[in-house]
Design brief:
Elements (H helix, E strand, L loop, with lengths): L3 H12 L8 H16 L8 E5 L7 H8 L2 E6 L2 H11 L8 E5 L2 H4 L9 E6 L5 H9 L2 E11 L11 H6 L2 E9 L1 E8 L13 H4 L4
Parallel strand pairs: 1-2, 1-4, 2-3, 4-5
Antiparallel strand pairs: 5-7, 6-7
Length: 207
């Protein structure tokens, strides 16, 4: 059940045009799938997670409400970051949630975020190559990247193993909880060269 704080936050997100046309309940269930990917593998919540391209707050706000752990909501659009700061500050929000306005390539170079998170989520951040490169340095070794997959969800070929390997990542499984999710594990430290400079992952994708 969506609590009062989350319902208010998502209603405000919709009012500002940050949520898609699907019903809020449908979008919340999709966000809960990210949590299910984690919870099917772990008995306790992550100590911290990062939501790439958090935008209108999904899945980040749903995961905050579910786990109340250290959270970083990252987005490159200032007006969306302003919205996220407002809603996490509401009564019932998360005191441990931080909002970062900027590019993932820049944030990944900050020492306080380097290999700092158990989980990184991405709902509609970019192509597989862009998402993997921008997420890799945030993850601890052994940590998990969960990415929303378009149908049909069995298209694991979207995630090229050789490209992931360059980043220290490996596809574990294409998971399904109503919707599809790619579950990717960090197997070793990401080489210092990644992520490349801002914009390069999109202009020259690794795969």
């Amino acid at each position: 059940m969506v609590n009062e704080w989350l319902a208010r936050a998502l209603a405000e997100s919709r009012a500002r045009g940050f949520l898609g046309p699907q019903s809020v309940d449908t979008q919340v269930r999709h966000a809960e799938g990210f949590a299910q990917c984690w919870e099917s593998r772990h008995s306790s919540p992550p100590t911290g997670f990062l939501d790439l391209g958090s935008g209108g707050g999904l899945p980040g706000l749903v995961l905050i409400e579910r786990w109340n752990c250290r959270t970083l909501l990252l987005d490159s659009m200032e007006k969306r970051c302003e919205f996220l700061r407002e809603v996490v500050a509401l009564n019932g929000g998360a005191a441990r949630a931080e909002v970062f306005h900027g590019r993932a390539e820049d944030a990944a170079r900050r020492p306080e975020y380097l290999e700092s998170f158990d989980l990184v989520t991405a709902r509609s951040f970019g192509s597989p190559a862009v998402t993997a490169e921008c997420a890799a340095r945030f993850l601890k070794v052994g940590a998990t990247l969960v990415v929303s997959e378009p149908p049909p969800e069995k298209h694991s070929e979207r995630w090229v193993s050789a490209g992931l390997e360059r980043l220290g990542l490996a596809l574990e499984q294409i998971e399904r909880f109503d919707s599809g999710y790619a579950v990717i594990v960090k197997t070793r430290p990401t080489p210092e060269e990644f992520p490349r400079s801002t914009g390069t992952p999109r202009k020259k994708p690794l795969f």
